[in-house]
Amino acid sequence: MGVRITYADSVYDLEDGESVLDGLLRHNLDIPYSCKSGTCQSCLMQAVSGDIPAAAQIDLKPGYKKQNLFLACQCTPEQDMDVQLPGTAIDVPAVIHSMEMLNHNVVRLVLMPQDEFTCEPGQYISLINGKGVTRSYSIANDPGKEDHIDLHIRFIKNGKMSLWLENQATRGDMLTLRGPAGNCFYTSDDGYDYPIVLAGTGTGLAPLYGILNRALECGHKGRIYLYHGALQAEDLYYIDELQALSEQHDLFDYVPCVLNGQDNNFYKAGNIEDIVMKALPKNKAQTRLFLCGAPDMVNSLKKKAFLSGLASKHIYADAFLPSKT
User: Fold this and answer.
1) Cα separation of 205 and 282, whole Å?
2) What is the chain's Cα-based Rg?
3) The total number of structural domains that make up the chain
4) Is residue 190 part of a domain?
5) For all residues of the chain together, what is the average pLDDT?
6) Distance between CA atoms of 198 and 291, rounded to whole angstroms?
7) Among 63, 107, 211, 213, which has the highest number of CB atoms less than 10 A from its own CB?
C-alpha cells in the first residue's frame, strides 16, 4: 500500500513519487498553489503528524520550520502524513484578569486562557468579545512560561473593541482567543550569536518585547537592538522596563525614537526608518530584522533593509492593519 495523506478528515492515496500537492489536486481538492517549483511558497501546508522530507523545507524561514510548515509541491513523503492548511485556528475561552494603562492611550490586557493555548511570543491572536467583535493583537509575553497572555491595545476613537474595553469590560469577563498565527518570533535554529534588530512603532512594541525577552532568556549571544518609535514622547511606554533590561544585559541596546522632538539624553529625534538604517549592524548577512507596527513604516523599512544587503529570509514583518469597522 502506498503513502496516504489525511486532509480535512479524509484520507487520500498518493501515487509513487507523487507530491502532496499533486496528489491532493488529483483528488480534485482546492489547494492554493502557483509555481510548483518551491519558489512562490503559495502551497505552504502544515504537518499535524508524520515526518516532513528535508526537500520540502529548503529555504523556509526557521519560524516556518518550527511550525511544521512545508512546501506541498516539494513534499514527496515516504510515510503517511496528516496535513492541513496553515492558520487553521483553534478557539479557547479566556477570562480578563486585569487591565492596566501603559500610557495615555495604550492598555495592557491580561487574559487567563481556560484551556491549553500554545503560542510563541511575537505571534498574534484574534480576540473575540461577547458581542462578536473580533480584532487581532500581538502577544507581548511568553505564555509557555506564564499562566496568562499579555496584549497591548491602543484605544482608537470610535473603535468597537476600544469602546468595549474602555467602557464595559471588567475583570472576570469571558472572551475567546483564536489562533495563534504569524511568523514573527525568535528562534535559535541558526545559533545564538547573530545580531538582532527589533524596530516598531506604537503597540508594535508588544511583539518585539516578547521576542526580546525570549531571546534574553535563551542566552542569545549576539547584540540586540530595540528601536521604539512614537510621534510624541508621551506615546512611548515600557520605558523603565526596557531601560532596566538594557542595564542588566550588556548586549542589549534600547533606543526610543520620537518623530516630533529634539535629540536629548533620553531619546533620538527623527524618523525611525532613518535612525534604524543608519545604525544597522555591519554584519548584514547574519542580521535578523523584526518589524512591527504601522504598515507604511514596516513596508518601507523592509524594502530599504533588503536593498541595503539584508537577506529577505532574515526579515520578519508584521504590519498592523487598522480595522475598517
Assistant:
1) 24
2) 21
3) 3
4) no
5) 92
6) 6
7) 211
Residues 79 and 95 in one domain: no
Going by C-beta distance under 8 Å and a sequence separation of 6 or more, which residues neighbour residue 269? 257, 258, 259, 261, 262, 263
| Rounded Cα distance, 247 and 6, in Å | 51
CA 130 to centroid of chain Cα atoms: 25
CA dihedral 204, 103, 117, 83 (to 10 degrees): -20
- 215 and 271 inside one domain: yes
Same domain, yes or no, for 201 and 300? yes
CATH code for position 22: 3.10.20.30
Phi then psi dihedrals of residue 271, to 5 deg:
-75, 130
Q: Specify whether the CB–CB gap between 103 and 236 falls below 8 A.
A: yes
Q: Is residue 66 part of a domain?
A: yes
- Encode pLDDT of 203-236 as tens digits: 999 999 999 999 999 999 999 999 999 999 999 9
Q: Are 172 and 164 in contact (CB under 8 A)?
A: no
Residue 122 CB neighbour total at 10 angstroms:
30
pLDDT band at residue 240, thresholds of 50, 70 and 90? very high
* DSSP-derived 3-state class of residue 123: coil
Domain assignment of residue 232, yes or no = yes
Using CB atoms within 10 Å of the CB of residue 170, give its burial: 0 to 12 exposed, 13 to 18 middle, 19+ buried: exposed
Q: Which backbone phi and psi does 304 adopt, to 5 degrees? A: -60, -40
With contact defined as beta carbons under 8 Å apart, do 106 and 227 qualify?
no
| Cα 148 from Cα 146, distance rounded (Å) | 6
Q: What's the domain range around 31?
A: 4-84
Query: 150 and 125 in one domain?
Result: yes
Backbone angles phi, psi at 107, to 5 degrees: -110, 140
**pLDDT tens by residue, 49-93:** 999 999 999 988 787 888 899 999 999 999 999 999 886 667 899
The pTM (predicted TM-score) of the whole model is 0.79
